[in-house]
Amino acid sequence: MVLPFSGSEAYSINVNQNHEIFRKSVREFMENYVSPQVERGEKEGKVPDEVLQKAKELGLYGIQAPEKYGGQGGDMLMVAIAQEEMTRVWPSFATRISIGGLYMSPILLYGTEEQKVKYVTPVAKGEKEAAFANTEPVAGSDVSGIRTVAKKVGNKYIINGKKIFITNGGYADYFVVTARTSPPEPNARWKGISMFIVEKPWKGVKVESRIETIGLKASYTAELLFDDVEVPESNLIGEEGMGFKYAMAAFDRTRVGVAAQGVGAAQGALEKMVTYSMQRSAFENSLINFQMVQEKISESLTEVNAARLLTYWAASLFDKGEENEAIIAASMAKFFSTEVAEKVAIRAITIHGGYGVSASAGVERYLRDVEVMKIYEGTNDIQKLTILKESAKRLLGLRL
């Protein structure tokens, strides 16, 4: 079968010395500064303020945002490396940082200069936090099924509706919100969805509740209510009715970051697995000398490195401007990396025995956190459908 990529050049990965210097700085920050705060943060359900302040100083909020909007002007590989290194130590923290990138993406792609200056700059600098309010009680993977409405009245829109499972929803100062400005068309349900920037202090914006999730305990997943919220016309992103397309474009790009989170979680679990197997003895022998333990470590080493290569490849395709190929690769990387992370976490728990299911060991947390990663920013089943549909379109000219 012919592969849906342009040629052998499409498979190149451009990791350079600057990327590795950046990796080293993020790793040192995570190991020396963040790691001692993880247990406290998990118990309190939040990232300590001093950790967020340090992340702000390092520029982790705006890695890919242009420098003129307060970011580092980095590439997608830098984003992947940062997400991998942050998740390796504390997945909740990585998610807290990454959501700002999802929020900024459609504004940078389709927003006005005024919107970029006003709503990207403070988030890229870490001065404000943000969230992407898309999922609804009746519309998750079926984004075109959203029921939140935005009615045009004069030079403003009135938004009414509920959003659910919004990562960072309780912390955010700004939201990107999708809402219907016109009814869906019979054969094009995605039409009629628009995208807006909404500020939390505005009248009618309410955080209804904090949703207790199986993992990512410090990310504050929330249910939001928009009750007659008045949004200036100037806060419409791009064209009216194109919000679905804008959301998909944003997810296509940030999906690489989720794939990198899978790599980081798998790497973290693998390291704990190896360390414990060297320290723990049974039957007068170190665990690492048992073949069944060696098998689990070998399988994990292979799969983690395969996931890393796949993720870096997807990031490199975006950096080279090969977006059609990158969309397929990002979906491959997202579902594969998070599935690998799940398997490696289970192996790590198994090798730890009773300690593996104890919260104090910090191993079971990787499994809980990965279960969330498999769902957000497009479930793994949705990724498989995307891979097939995009490949069939490129290879066979079929629209499935």
TrEMBL record:
SUPFAM superfamilies: Acyl-CoA dehydrogenase C-terminal domain-like, Acyl-CoA dehydrogenase NM domain-like. Pathway: Amino-acid degradation; L-valine degradation. The keyword 4Fe-4S does not apply. GO terms for molecular function: acyl-CoA dehydrogenase activity; flavin adenine dinucleotide binding. Its cofactor is FAD. Residues 17-127 form the Acyl-CoA dehydrogenase/oxidase N-terminal domain. This is Acyl-CoA dehydrogenase.
